[in-house]
Fold this sequence. Notes:
The chain is 33% helix and 18% strand. By secondary structure, it is α+β, with helices and mostly antiparallel strands. It folds into four domains: 4-124, no CATH class; 181-260, Winged helix-like DNA-binding domain superfamily/Winged helix DNA-binding domain (Arc Repressor Mutant, subunit A, Orthogonal Bundle); 267-337 and 443-472, Periplasmic binding protein-like II (D-Maltodextrin-Binding Protein, domain 2, 3-Layer(aba) Sandwich); 341-441, D-Maltodextrin-Binding Protein, domain 2.
Amino acid sequence: MRDLAQRVELLVGGRVRVLHRNARPELDVLADGRAERLVVRHPRLVERGQVELDEALALRLGDPQPAVDVDEVLEAELAREAVRAAEGLGGEHRQVLDVLRLPVPEQRLEERVAQDAVVEELLEAVQRGLASGVLVEARALGACSCRHAPKTAARGPGVQQLRGAGDNHRLWHRGVVDLDLAQVRAFVAVVDHRHFGRAAQALNLTQQALSKRVARLEAGLGRLLERDRGGVALTPAGERFLPAARRMLEVADRAVADVRQTPAAPLRVDVWGELHPPARLVRDVAREQPELVVDLSMRRDLARALGALERHELDLAFGNAANLDRPLPPGTTARLVTTDPIAVLVNVRGVLAERGHVTPADLVRRGVWWPSAGSSAEVRGFAEEYVGSIGASLRTEGSNLGLDALLERVATDPDLVAPVVATWPLARDDVRIVPLRPTPLYPWHAVWRTADPHPDLAGLLRAVEAAGRRPDAAPDTWLPRAAREP
């Protein structure tokens, strides 16, 4: 059994911080709970670094057992330690020092707290001022350039306050809540997974450790999540905090990448589908700019892509924002970047197969077929708006199973007239694409988060817009109302 008389156990906020076999290290403890202290600079015992709140360190310095996250230490295990009754440090909230039969270290600690707390606070304030630029180091503190002032020699480095220092006061003032990124990351993971267990698995944490992080975050900000048997849901406060929490994590990750001079994360882009202009345009830009790294996905539904954009799983999404069945999410920007000309697909045995082009009057007589099942809201909305604008009828029976299924369906029914992209290649001779006049233009928008966009986003958008087909104001074209230029 270890000699308990040679150990000091320091608990801050209910956590094990450090257990010492050597009673000589001095411990810095701050009253009023404003900040956590370091184990003071014993190079042989501590590696000159701050003991982070969630850093996985061994519980006893020099212990051979592997390090564990302190959040994962069960309270029952801590209770098994043979400790004496704890003494409070001046009655501070949740700060307790347990001293095991060590009267000398106990006296030293009390004296240190009483004598040095004010000095430590002053030094901390000075260090924060230097780090933020509010204070600058001066070689001759107190030197005066006045004519009648006595000349004094430089007395070594000092600190002086810059003019306008109050402008940055909000950046370092301790009256605000200091957010822990690990806690913020835990909160966002729970929201995305809608479950504590799955979120903990994604972060390689135990569920107990994850719950503690979220609880500490809520202790400072208020209730953010509602928990029930069905999972978790955001409170109104959580909904307000979530967008800023996602931006905070992205900014932090980019800051680390900048400091380490590591390549930026790939630009995550949803190009809707394989056959459509966004996929071709983005691939062309990537080939011309090898330094641009993109990660492509194809959800075939702008509404789904917008959900991923809100969750910061995407940086850019393409789709028809003009015919969505819902408004764009707050904090997003949409821009029309290209269009697709629409024609009709007909059976070669049909009455329209030999026509040079098809008119709206032909569609009024024949009707238009487009299966609604399996089609996204934006595609259905485009078909409904166009057919309604010319006074034709829209048949929606069947399922949208892809281009091959569409070709097969029209090839077996001479009466069907289906809208398709005029430039799609066909590898069969039993169907034909006939142009429409005026030509409907299917709009493709780029949608991204307005705040903190990916560093490579602007360059990609410029290149896509330059290569895309922009709509014109000619009378022989048609665009959805929401896509028309004002």
